């Protein structure tokens, strides 16, 4: 029997890649859902439903229509600066809607795979965070994502929470970019870019998010999984790797401290994630950053 898979947030940067990758697999019948109309109609073997999942009635109708065996939630308010000043909106999609998805999955017997973030951690550690480590978010986006995780764990008996970090890859018009794209664009235009040299991350190639999800569809394991790259480096180092791989001018990269950057939203200093659990239990194997950059820029 083919599995019916529902990808929520299917117009988003990560959700679209997941939708495309899963719809290439004949074992699945895939439906994408997003707030707005399909951003790339006719581009793959999937059905598409526009719905506002924050509206109870629309969410209920979506589940009634699709009757999914697996639900993947890639919808969110995923811009920390915006969440910081729009608490209610952030709460509605990052917490309340997530709780409702979890409840519907539980009632219907569907497996729930929910995307979360390294920003649940404070960043005060000097070591890669493991799934068992205690979260303590430093911004409102992180607070909402942590509460979303808690709802899933409370309400679902068949779930996986996938924490990902600084997702990079090619984007479609209309999607928000990522810092690697910004670096490449600026350097190609001969413009300088300031990048923080004191925020450490484990960047995730967007195709590896799909890889993690496919593994978690096959496994029945419950719990949290860190799914990201294996290299932990600063944003400045990531920028240098982009310049290096694309043969662009290094001197346009201006490393600065978080203090000098004057970011309005606090961010964790060190939020690298350990992928040992995913490697051991799922056989997850991420691309290297260099491989990911080459795939992203098609070189
Ligand atoms: N991007 C990153 O680097 C990281 C992302 N994450 C997590 O991964 C997930 C995906 O992030 P990302 O790819 O950046 O997401 P995007 O911001 O690119 O996409 C989010 C999608 O959610 C959809 N959406 C928002 N509100 C609603 C609603 N009320 N009803 C239906 N759909 C809605 C939007 O639909 P539409 O476009 O149709 O309006 C949008 O396409 C999130 O959970 C995020 O927290 C975690 C770590 C890093
Ligand atoms: C735009 C920009 C960002 N940065 C840094 C800040 C930050 O550490 C990193 C990424 O910046 P962004 O603004 O893209 O995203 P930011 O909001 O920091 O990143 C987060 O997004 C949310 C959704 C997550 O869940 C996190 O995992 C993380 O990826 O790059 C610079 O150094 N220079 C710049 O010009």
Brief summary:
The chain has 299 residues and is of the alpha/beta class.
Description:
Helix 1 links the parallel strand 1 and strand 2. The protein has a domain of 208 residues: NAD(P)-binding Rossmann-like Domain (Rossmann fold, 3-Layer(aba) Sandwich), CATH 3.40.50.720. Helix 2 packs parallel to helix 4 and helix 4 runs parallel beside helix 5. It starts with a strand and ends with a helix. It has a 7-stranded parallel beta sheet, with helices on both faces. Strands 7-10 form a two-stranded parallel sheet. The longest helix is centred in the N-terminal third of the chain and has 22 residues. It has 299 residues and is of the alpha/beta class. It has 11 helices and 13 strands. The chain is globular, with a radius of gyration of 19 Å. It binds NADPH dihydro-nicotinamide-adenine-dinucleotide phosphate (NDP) and dtdp-4-keto-L-rhamnose (TDO).
Q: Indicate the overall shape.
A: globular
Q: Roughly what percent helix?
A: 25-40%
Give, in spatial order, the strands making up the sheet with the most strands: 3-2-1-4-5-6-11
Number of separate strands = 13
Sketch the major β-sheet. Answer: 7 strands, parallel
Structural category: alpha/beta
Supply the number of helical segments. 11
Bound molecules: NADPH dihydro-nicotinamide-adenine-dinucleotide phosphate, dtdp-4-keto-L-rhamnose
Any idea what the CATH superfamily of the domain at 3-169 and 203-230 and 275-287 is called?
NAD(P)-binding Rossmann-like Domain
Mean pLDDT: 97
Quote the CATH topology of the domain at 3-169 and 203-230 and 275-287: Rossmann fold
Uncertain runs are none
Going by CATH, the architecture of the domain at 3-169 and 203-230 and 275-287 would be 3-Layer(aba) Sandwich
CATH class of the domain at 3-169 and 203-230 and 275-287: Alpha Beta
How do the SSEs run, as a string of H and E? EHEEHEHHEHEEHEEEHEEHEHHH
Residues in β-strands, percent: 15-25%
| Through-space gap between termini | 39 Å
Radius of gyration based on Cα positions: 19 Å
Enzyme class: oxidoreductase
EC number: 1.1.1.133
Pathway: Carbohydrate biosynthesis; dTDP-L-rhamnose biosynthesis
Protein name: dTDP-4-dehydrorhamnose reductase
């Amino acid at each position: 029997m083919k599995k019916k898979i529902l990808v929520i947030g299917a117009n988003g940067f990560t959700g679209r890649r997941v939708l495309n990758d899963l719809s290439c697999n004949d074992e699945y019948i895939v439906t994408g859902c997003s707030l707005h109309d399909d951003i790339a109609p006719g581009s793959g073997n999937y059905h598409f439903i526009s719905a506002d999942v924050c509206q109870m009635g629309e969410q209920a109708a979506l589940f009634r229509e699709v009757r999914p065996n697996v639900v993947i939630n890639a919808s969110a308010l995923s811009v920390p600066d915006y969440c910081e000043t729009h608490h209610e909106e952030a709460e509605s999609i990052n917490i309340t809607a997530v709780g409702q998805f979890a409840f519907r999955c539980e009632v219907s017997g569907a497996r729930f795979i929910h995307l979360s973030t390294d920003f649940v951690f404070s960043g005060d550690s000097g070591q890669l965070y493991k799934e068992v480590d205690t979260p303590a978010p430093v911004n409102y986006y992180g607070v909402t994502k942590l509460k979303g995780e808690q709802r899933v764990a409370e309400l679902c008996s068949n779930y996986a929470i996938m924490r990902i970090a600084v997702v990079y890859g090619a984007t479609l018009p209309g999607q928000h970019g990522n810092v690697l794209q910004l670096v490449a664009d600026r350097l190609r235009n001969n413009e300088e870019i300031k990048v923080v040299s004191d925020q450490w991350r484990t960047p995730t190639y967007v195709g590896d998010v799909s890889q993690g999800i496919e593994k978690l569809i096959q496994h029945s394991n419950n719990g949290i999984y860190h799914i990201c790259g294996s290299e932990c480096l600063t944003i400045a180092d990531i920028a240098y790797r982009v310049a290096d791989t694309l043969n662009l001018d290094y001197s346009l990269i201006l490393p600065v401290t978080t203090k000098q950057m004057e970011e309005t939203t606090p961010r964790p200093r060190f939020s690298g994630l350990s992928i040992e659990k995913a490697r051991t239990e799922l056989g997850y194997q991420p691309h290297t950053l260099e491989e990911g950059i080459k795939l992203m820029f098609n070189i």
